């Protein structure tokens, strides 16, 4: 197949491209960032909001995987412009080009702060913050094209990890590697899922290849083997080898302090993440298992430990992305005021 991937230089994009190229497909990556050259992969450096750029990227494609989006670390206006405006541009270009199938990579964030677990795809979308609102509105755009006859599978992954993933996890990895305890609201004794990017790649490939009537729906994608945030983060501290532990913070004061730091814009921990870390948060993957044949090979703990090992292997490489702070999932987010807290733990 000829496959175009928006956000090709991102965590999912890079891992998906590697799999597609290995399987003999021809890939075009559209991203603002570049990545190492790869056989049978054409790179277009450009913005998903630019119509001419998008049209050039999707020309001749059999299927498009739309994975480009803004992250919670972006400014609200940029989140809206990229995730909603960019999706509108990509979907319109695909419709004009007659591309029959677009895989839309959304997020389980569309459920907001659900009070029912496991959360199924039938749970109503709840508007909470700029990031999740943009994800909801992007889904509404692609659903409009679905009604017009396009096949648009929607994937709603939980937070996924693997090679090239840093973001806020870089803080945990750094603290663990340097031999610090790590604080969590209430000790992190809440059930929560993550996802290995390899399993997300498997789900994406299924959504690309199964019949239209089967895949033209929304699917939660997450690990099926998971425990608590405490256990997953403690596994990283154990792997670091310094004998450090998770430190429980009183729930009320911790939430209040983190919310204040967020309002002051001196912390990377955003509102929805604060509350995700203080309650059970996991989804049902029954539909993906039944329809897509989704059978994740990795547990949440496997995913975070594999990413930590990758981070450790890469951190000493001069000029590597893991040494540069930024806003993308492939860069460590700036810790802000939380960097000073490290001295306490």
Write structural notes for this entry.
There is one protein chain. Helices cover 42% and strands 13% of the residues. The chain contains 13 helices and eleven strands. 46% of the residues are buried. It is an alpha/beta fold and 345 residues long. It is globular, with a radius of gyration of 19 Å. The strands form three sheets. Strands 3-2-1-4-5-6-10 form a seven-stranded parallel sheet, sandwiched between helices. It has a two-stranded parallel sheet with strand order 7-9. It has a two-stranded parallel sheet with strand order 8-11. α3 packs parallel to α4. The chain has two domains: 187 residues, NAD(P)-binding Rossmann-like Domain (Rossmann fold, 3-Layer(aba) Sandwich), CATH 3.40.50.720; 130 residues, no CATH class.
What is the highest CATH level, the class of the largest domain? Answer: Alpha Beta
Task: Indicate the percent of residues in helices.
Answer: 40-55%
Structural class: alpha/beta
- CATH architecture term of the largest domain: 3-Layer(aba) Sandwich
Average pLDDT taken over every residue: 90
In total, the number of domains comes to 2
* Model regions low in confidence, pLDDT < 50 over at least 5 residues: 318-322
How many alpha or pi helices?
Answer: 13
Q: What is the name of the CATH superfamily of the largest domain?
A: NAD(P)-binding Rossmann-like Domain
Described by strand count, sense and barrel closure, the largest sheet is: 7 strands, parallel
Strand order of the largest sheet: 3-2-1-4-5-6-10
Give the DSSP E fraction (strand runs of 2 or more residues). 5-15%
Radius of gyration: 19 Å
Number of strands: 11
Sketch the topology as an H/E string, one letter per element: EHEEHEHEHEEHEEHHEHEHHHHH
CATH topology of the largest domain: Rossmann fold
Whole-Å distance between the termini? 51 Å
Q: Looking at the structure, what is the overall shape?
A: globular
